Automatic annotation (TrEMBL):
InterPro entries: ELO_fam
GO MF annotations in UniProt: fatty acid elongase activity
Signal peptide (from-to): none
EC number: 2.3.1.199
GO CC entries: endoplasmic reticulum membrane
Record's keyword terms, sorted: Fatty acid biosynthesis, Fatty acid metabolism, Lipid biosynthesis, Lipid metabolism, Membrane, Transferase, Transmembrane, Transmembrane helix
Protein's name in the database: Elongation of very long chain fatty acids protein
Record's subcellular location: Membrane
Keyword match Secreted: no
Keyword presence, Repeat: no
One Gene Ontology term from the biological process aspect of the record: very long-chain fatty acid biosynthetic process
Species assigned in the record: Spodoptera littoralis (Egyptian cotton leafworm)
Length: 278
């Protein structure tokens, strides 16, 4: 079934409806999005913790290695297709895609939309491996917000600027899941991930680049986002920056000795004990 896309150009007060690519998800509606995220939160906060309460944690070493390898490969693919797109249309686009061009933008965003859903499995693996300290507010907020933000862009405002966001975030995920994958190989490989603390710095730089891009795209584009939605995007990224910065300070600046790991890059889906044998 095709999902209807409302593409609103605020300056002209015009509302046009286009057909998106076919989708097998329920997420053509806000109700569908809410059901998916509610099911995710209930699963990782209630159902799976109850199931694991009197059980030993699963190791899942082979599964984790395969999962991380797939995430790296998928993220590399996203970086490639988005760099190709950016090369064709420039970083700051001066066009207002309509009709077939608009559907082309939707097709570019859709794989990233799928990727944000796959990221939810990080939390499932935390619960199955009893890494309860990893399931923090930041972790859940980040994952659910990214699904929601991508859905809003895909279904209502499929613009070129989000392709740049997807490219930057996918590049960071290449590094993150590569780190997770190397860590999952065992203590002998811990010496190769000395750069782990720099990943959070990369994430912080990513947020700065995204905010800068959204700001200039909004000012220079002939068809900017509606002001309310643009402000929502900016606020969301700023909250990410504050939360990840707080994680970095607590983890690496020594202001709190025994702070529990939060969702920055050290919310790893591998065993943190491996990282101590260095």
């Amino acid at each position: 079934m095709d999902a209807g896309l409302e593409y609103i150009v605020e300056d002209h007060g015009v509302k046009e409806t286009y057909l998106s690519i076919p989708t097998w998800t329920l997420q053509e509606t806000l109700v569908g999005l809410t059901l998916v995220l509610a099911a995710y939160l209930i699963l990782v906060m209630k159902i799976l913790p109850t199931y694991m309460k009197n059980r030993e944690p699963f190791q899942l070493k082979k599964l984790m290695l395969a999962y991380n390898a797939f995430q790296v490969a998928f993220s590399v693919y996203l970086v490639f297709i988005y760099l190709r797109y950016i090369y064709r249309f420039n970083v700051i686009t001066t066009r207002c895609p309509q009709g077939e061009d608009l559907q082309g933008v939707v097709r570019e965003i859709y794989p990233y939309f799928i990727a944000k859903h796959l990221d939810l499995f990080d939390t499932v693996f935390f619960v199955l491996r009893k890494k309860d300290n990893q399931i923090t507010f930041l972790h859940l907020y980040h994952h659910t917000s990214m699904v929601t933000w991508t859905w809003l862009h895909l279904m209502y405002h499929p613009t070129d600027n989000f392709v740049v966001v997807g490219m930057l975030n996918s590049f960071v995920h290449v590094l993150m899941y590569a780190y997770y994958g190397i860590s999952s190989l065992g203590p002998a490989y811990a010496k190769y991930i000395w750069w782990k603390k720099h990943l959070t710095k990369v994430q912080l730089v990513q947020f700065i680049l995204v905010v800068s891009h959204l700001h200039y795209q909004q000012k220079l584009s002939p068809c900017p986002l509606p002001s309310f939605f643009h402000n929502f995007c900016m606020l969301l990224i700023c909250t990410f920056f504050v939360l990840f910065m707080n994680f970095y300070i607590n983890s690496y600046r020594g202001k709190k000795k025994n702070v529990e790991k939060q969702n920055g890059v050290l919310e790893s889906n591998v065993d943190e004990r491996l990282l101590k044998t260095r």
